[in-house]
Amino acid sequence: MxxxxxxHIEPDATAGRARARRELSRGLRLTIWTVVAALVLAAGxxxxxxxxxxxxxxxxxxxxxxxxxxxxPTPSADPAPAAPEPVHMIAMGDMxxxxxxxxxxxxxxxxxxxxxxxxxxxxxxxxxxxxxxNQEVPxxxxxxxxxxxPTFNAPTKFARDLREGVGCDLVNTATNxxxxxxxxxxxxxxxxWDGLGPAIVAGAxxxxxxxxxxxxxxxxxxxxxxxxxxxxxxxxxDGVSLSMMSDTALVTELVTNARExxxxxxxxxxxxxxxxxxxxxxxxxxxxxxxxLGADVVLGTGPHVLQPVTWLDRxxxxxxxxxxxxxxxxxxxxxxxxxxxxxxxFDLVRDSADGPVRVERPSAILTYMHYDWSAEQEAAGDLMxxxxxxxxxxxxxxxxxxxxxxxxTAAAQLAASQAILGPEVEILEPAAAx
Length: 434
Description:
Elements: E1 9-10, H1 17-51, E2 87-95, H2 99-105, H3 122-126, E3 130-135, H4 156-166, E4 170-172, H5 182-194, E5 200-202, H6 208-211, E6 216-219, E7 222-230, H7 248-261, E8 264-270, H8 281-292, E9 297-301, E10 309-313, E11 319-323, E12 340-349, E13 358-372, H9 375-380, E14 387-393, H10 398-401, H11 410-421, E15 426-427
Parallel strand pairs: 1-6, 2-3, 3-4, 4-5, 7-8, 8-9, 9-11, 13-15
Antiparallel strand pairs: 2-12, 6-7, 10-11, 12-13, 13-14
């Protein structure tokens, strides 16, 4: 079989600032080891010369048994190469540009800026080497008409800001809203992402060839493949334009090919019961199916609220990390649980440069999506009156929560969210990010 790995690799052009800091640290360590080795060698030579017996000049011409040339000291061996630094990957849930989000992003002189909503979590985003995002809706642009719920379409700037501002490297487009504008909207959305490489986009497709083309993103030498599937579509769709969980042959083909091409296989699954923290049987069955095919991580989106995190044993003896639902990230939905999201983190670890990669240390930084909306505006149903949109770490959200009708604290919502996610994931304070 021809090895197709190099044909599917996207260059590592946008890994996070954390990697740059680690590369500098590795360079400093190498320099220090070189200087230490040189000092040890010089010291050993000086001691050996001091201990040699003094001889007359003529003795040098008459070698004896005791005056045979001494072997040069053996230089100190180089230290064993350190294990590569882990690659830190994060994942975020549904990016939903509702009408109020689009209105808040609009700039007075024209255009839009969606990155402003993420400024409160910029430190956490910058600490990642690889970032997964779920683009819930088309970004086909003004030609198709900008719209929110229930038939979505965002400006093309929405995709650009997710890539260039938020740093999304792996992008799911397999959602129930992907076909809101039909196949033309899918094609326009993919065309926008064509110019935003080296990001990997998967799930909604322009052709059968694109649907079956497993792409690989590389970070610090770790090859990461993304394949994506949706449980259903709100609009009629064919079997090519949207990759469906129910297409068992397609699921098997894509995950198997990803396993051959990559060190780490990430499966995006847009599934589950909306607004429910409970995992349903269809989710469990699909998670086990892709785990047994070799998936390393399953990232669930779609329910709009958090669901548990677990490990599944798989057929090859490994383990698969499953985030059943990452919840919402950018949105203006109504309930607190719909506005509580997570920056899901995990490390891709290997013991040597060419060794296998393991998924370790799942962690979570919980987030809160805020907007101001007075009781009068809410009673009047004035959705466009929502202002001061922002995403912030939940742990520091008390001043914002005090301006809402929720009547709770950050600590209480943190505790409730931790209970939902379960014991397999470590909840991090914002200062501990990265």
